[in-house]
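Protein: Phorbol-ester/DAG-type domain-containing protein
Species: Brassica campestris
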Amino acid sequence: MDTHFWSPDHRDEVPFDDRWEIAFTAKSVIKNLNRSPSNFCGDCLEHIEDNDFRWRCSLCIKKWHLRCVPSSPDDINHPFHPYHPLELLIDVPRPPDHSKSKCDECQQELKSYFYHCSLCDFSMHVRCSKEPPPPIVETAKCHEHTLTCMVRNDTFTCNACGTHGERCPYVCAPCGVMFHWECIKLPHVININRHNHRVSHTFSLGFGKRKCMICHKKVDWRYGAYSCSTCPDDYVVHSKCATRSDVWDGVELEGVPEEYFDVLPFEVIEEGISIKHFSHEEHILYTVEDEDDMTDGSMRCEACVHPIFSEAHYKCMECHFIIHETCANLPLRKRHWLSTTPFYLNANDNDTSDSFFRCGACQTISNGFRYESDKGVSLDMRCAFVISSYSDHECHPHTLFITTLDEGNCGGCKLTKKHVLRCTECDFSLCLACATLPKKIKRKGDEHFLFLRHGEKEVSGKYWCEVCEAVLDPHEEWFYTCHVSGVTFHIKCVVGEFPNAKPGFTYRYQCVLGHNLTLYGARVCTRHHGEEIIQLVRNDRSTRPKCASCGSRCLPPLILKFYLVDTYEVYCCNLECSLKFLLDSAQDFNQYFQNWTRPAGRTGPTITPLVG
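Structure follows.
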């Protein structure tokens, strides 16, 4: 047990005069521990490895890396700021009397303690002060000559990345070049998740006008960037964009041979006529350009599970397997912005219990083909087509791009979504669920197609939805309409909660509703009396069934049907109603079972149901 002068977390609990006497323990833990929140550093927020020494507060569970904690309360002199000493500030949210909130060296956010010079408005993390960059770099990856750190507060433009720096560049005087400290170590050859080929760093692209294919801003040809030598068109990415943690997997590939992976998903049997697809190897599939019996949408693609109308597709003549031509051509492996590791195509056998999955891009549930990454991320077929850009001039006059993975407000559904496509020319954003809505759709029994409309600004009055008979505001809402009859529908009333799922398959309810611990615990007694299953069915009966939870008539095109241990069948409108019904019915069943097993004359139960 050692005493330490500093405790930023307990200033309200401990008097100021006693703050220097807060006890800390430096301890090495060898055991294998799970990565709980307590195993992350309170300053840099990075994980503290199990065998690392760390500071731990004796009054709470907070821990810090040794490098992140100041060794004394004294002022320090630092080579990046040689003019004045730096004062240690504790328990202040940001430097006093100015708006900066980032470290001047690493440009990351400042926490509750840091070193600061009030005369020069200079701030630095404790961890950055302990690991100052070397004054000379003799073997830099970015340059063939020795580089020297110029300790001056002069602004400059880094020759490796093309962005500005404010102080202390590394320079080569004979060549007249300057670099950020972090750009000295830029990798030469990398894989990024926005492109299928490797990209390599170059210090000059040559004269020309180019845009970064990630942020879609101008790339200055005079400075360094990453480019693809395989593509005939200029594929160029800013150095900073290419090495972002959500774009690059962190692996330097210079000198590493490029592996060959056969991404072709099928074997051509007869050119233009037949193929053998990896997902249906037992039979040959034949090309179908147009087919009259497909116009009703009764057949669904096995991959994207959307109805097949007049699109070109492949069909098995020995069974009911059918797949869009575009879906059949999707590669076995591809890169996608959703993960830094490659995605591999999985045919997703619906006979298995885990065939229901939630797409990581649009957050909708699907049971069609999926792409899976090594990090456990799943991607449905509709979102797999949206690599980095989306263009639909009926929706928005400008092309939309995946520039960052930050959440945004969708201009279609008006909701805040985790991933959105953004317009680089205005503030419009669009979520993946809205971007992948079918442009045309046909409801069962209808003669004509319904077409997606992205709102109508010039109409007066309001419309009415043909399904739920509620008001539909064409000025603010997207909707479906028939060009012949003029009827209108809410999006949710046409596609429902399962636009990317195929009906007719049976699952255990956990596969559809997720492994909810409360639900799992509540229904533990019922599971002893039989298996409970759930089925996704078409809502095409002449009389719409009543929802067992909300009591209303089920309106969506696909609804959930439950087979419960009480040997009765019930229907639910959506996932929310399903969860509520299962929890409520579990409580009723547990109470009934408890009363049924209680002997006459006894007031206490003979068993205790495990209710979560």
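Remarks: Residues 575-596 form the longest helix (22 residues).
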